[in-house]
Structures are given as structure tokens and as C-alpha cells.
Amino acid sequence: MINNLKEIIKKQRFVINYSRMWPYVKPLWFRALCSMLICIPIGSLDAVIALALKPYMDLVMVEKSISSPWYIPLGIVAFTSLQGVLKYLSAYLSTWVGGRITNGLKYDLFQKLLTLPTQFFDKKKSGDIVFQFNNQADNACAGLLNNLSVFVQRIFSSISLVCVLFYNSWQLALIATAVLGCAFAPVAKIQKRIKGIMEKTVFADAAIITEYNEVFNGNKTITSYNLQKHETAKFQNILKNIFTLKIKMVQKTQWLSPLMHVIVSIGIAGAIGYGSHLIIQGDITSGNFVSFITALILLYTPVKNIGNNLNAVQFSFFAIEKIFGVLDTIPSIRDKENAKTLEEIKGEIEFQNVNFEYVKNIPVLRDINLKIKKGETIAFVGNSGGGKSTIVSLIPRFYDIRSGSIKIDGTDIRDYTLKSLRQNISIVFQDNFLFSGTIRDNILLGRKDASDNEVQNAVKMAYLDEFISTLKSGLDTQIGERGILLSGGQKQRVAIARAFLKDAPIIILDEATSALDNKAEAIVQRAIDNLMKDKTVFVIAHRLSTIRNADAIAVINEGRLVELGCHEELMSIPNGQYRTLYEMQFKKQAAMTQSV
Prior knowledge:
The protein is of the alpha/beta class.
């Protein structure tokens, strides 16, 4: 039986996974060891009741001795109480150690998550991220330690009970252990049958988290478009899918417990039948027989229910396998060996024959060649989807180019450390992400050690001071998750103040005013003008009037640089794309002005 258990555990890749878990267990090894060692007497004490029944039955029930062994009932109570105390200690230590290991795994998973490139997040749903980087750690550790404790208890319980069986009758013990071996034979077959279902269950559980996140973040869209029934139908389909998977899991595994019941009943029946013969022959006493049957029932009872615990064990090992698959992931965008630190930008930024694709063999940028000197402003214009945002996303290495190079001061940006490269870049997006907390908290993300005077100056330069003065708590006003309590223009100005505080020499403005109304845009544009002073600026603007003074304007069309020059140079090109875009926008603005 023990050999069968070891084989099952081995097939579950327990040894490999445990060796990977050792760095997390090592700091806690003493408590973890105590937790496992306590399981030995817990399991072994199961034999006490069965062993005590032999002298009690022989002396009291058969011989009807007057001097009955009164100490036996008291001993049973004492040993059972001791077993209960040990079980509590084992549960406490297992939970403590399991919680610390879980936190260690979650910490490393979170660190790994922060190193993964933007492309990873582009392809994942929020539910997948939460489940993979949080819930899997809970599933792994909770299931692993609890079930490991159960296995240790049952192994030593089985050893002690088998000893009682052989003590009472070696003939009956051989029958019992043979039947027990047969009972474990089908367990090993279950793993292959349920692995596919476990993977599908993980994705289904992640889909529920995604749906909740989408309802939370898209509640206004759902309400305005009356999408309640649509979302309810989606959620119902997810629940149906999970229900179907649970039923399949039952179909694949729960046949084991009934089968165990049948096999165990055969063993008990065989022991009773042959035991009766041995009593009649005088080979064993009635006490031996009762003690044997009690030990046999105690031995067989957990075996009958092993199918119920198998799913939890499988999920634990499955979760551990997935966790270390994630931790072993090597980010596609990372520092080279001996990467340089970008201390100061002294010269120019150059794009040399840059090609890029999000999906293999589907080009997004083709042969982009650009030079931007220190302190210059270059604007990117063109039709939507042409590749403007992609170009600026390559500078901080949100993505890596397929071929060519992007150089700062003659050095490829891939030869700089990611930290130093990004420390020299501030970005203001179209939809800037603000974190839950206060306005001050979000501004200080630009530089955590900034003084109050520096924060106040950033607020002033971002034209936030007038708005802040109207707030009861000022900079310490809570803004809600994602800055939900602020308007679009206010959020943009908080982001600009954050960029002011960072004071990076390179500024990227990715359509920073495109989502604002005219009044908010005017204020934000003044703040941006302050931010751009004495910086190297890459700007994507939807209103061409705001970039007329740029040192260079690059027209991007279908991933190619089709025109490059200042406003006057591009306007002088007959039928030029920039001129066409500018005139179309000017006519549209004139028409809107006349209609007003």
C-alpha cells in the first residue's frame, strides 16, 4: 500500500515540484518539520483503540473477569484527547507555514508580473492575470500542505494499523493488505483523465473574474446601452460552462469512491468469514478478532474516501506546475548582460531602418529613419492606425523592434538598462492611469523624495493650483479607483504634474488632449507647453494647429514615413499628405465655427 502511495506521488511530479518549493520552505523548515512530525503520532494513535480492545474483550466480554481493566477506557479517552490536541497543533502550523509560503509565492509572482512586457498584457484578460498570479498560489499551498499532512497521517495510521492486524492474526492480515493493494491500483489512472478538465476549469474560473472586472469598469457603458441582459447572458454561459466541467470532473473521478467501497467490503467480508473459521479452530481469540476488525475498519475508512481528496491533490500539483511555469518565464524585453546606465542625454535620438510587427509577418512599421536633436520637438501625424503611437512606444521599449535600431547618443537603446532608459522618459498618454489614493500620492509617483515646494511648483506648472484650492482636503483629496472622481482634464493635469516632478529630458505626448473638450484642452495645452520647455519632445496630436511650431513634423502612413519637415516645408508640397490633412481639418473647424 505504501509503495503504491509513493508511486502515485511520484507520478504527480511531487519530488520535482517539492524541490522547486524548497527555497520557500527553507526559512520555515522548523515549523514545517514540526507540522509533519506531529502527523506521525496523530496517525499512529489510531491503532490504540483497536489494540486496547483485545484484552478488554478477552477479560470482560469472554472471561467475565471481576477485576476488569478499568484503565483501558480511561486510556482510550486520554489517547484520543492527546490526538485531538496534536491535530489542532498540526492544523495551526500547517496554516501558518502555508500562509507564509503562499505570500512568498505571491510576492515572486507579482515581481515577475512587473517585469513582463506590454505585449504580454495585450494578449491577456484581467481574469487570467488575477487567477494566474494570485489564485494559483492559494490553490497550490493550501492544497499541498493540507493534503501532505493528510497523507503523512494516513501513512503512519496505516503502518500502525497494519501492525495491529499482524499482531492479532498474520493470516487475516495478509488478506487485508492484499485487498488494500487492489484498492489503490485504479488511483494512478485518474491523472491523465482529468488533466485536460483541470486546465479548462482554470480558464473558466478566470473568465468569471474577467466578467466581474468588465462590469465594474464598464458599468456606465452597460447602463447607457441597456446591456444588462447581454451581460447576464454572458455570465450565465460562463456558469453553465463551469457547471459542465464540474460534472465532467465528477464523472471522471467519483467512480473511484464507490469502487473503493466494493473492494473494501470484499476485504471485510473475507476477514469476517475466515476469522470465524480461525476462532472456531482456536487459532485466535474473540479479542483478537474484534481488535482485528476494528483496526481493519479504521484502515479501510479513509481508503474508501480517497477519491474525494484526489481532486484537491491534483489541483495542488497542477497549480504548482503552472506557478513555476510562470516564474521560469524569461521576459522578452530585459537588460542585456553588462548593459550601460543612461546617465545623461547629450546628443540626438536616431531611428535607423526601424521595422516592427505585433504579429509575425504582419508589418506595422517599415524602414523608419529619423533624427531628433536634443531639445527639439518632433510631431507625428497621419491617419488613424498608421503607426504613430507604435513609434513612440518603441522609445521606452514597451516593445522591441524587429530590425534596425533606435539610438540615443549613438548607443542602441537595447544596450542601456531598462531602468535608466525609462528614468529619462516621461509619458503623458491620452488616457492616463491614476492610482487609488490622493492627488498628492499620484503626483509623487514622478519622484517619491520630492519636497513640498517641488510638488507645489509642479502643481502650479500643470495649472492644477486653482482646482486644488477649491478642494477641502487640497492635495490630500481622495480620487477613487483610476481617478474616477476627477474630470478628464483634471486627470491629464495630474499626470502632467507627475511628469513635471520626474523632470525627464525626453517627453512623449501620445494624443494627450484628444479626449478633452475645447476649454479643458486649452488649459491642458498650456500645461503641456510648460512641460515641453528645454526637453526633447515626441508628440502625437490630433489637432494640427497645436504642432505648427514643432521643429519637425513626420507624416506616417501605413507604417511608412512619407513626409518629414517643418510646417512651412510640408505645406509647400503640392498635394502633400500633411497639407491635405491640415486643409481638411482647417475647413472642418471653419465650418463648425460658422455653424455656431
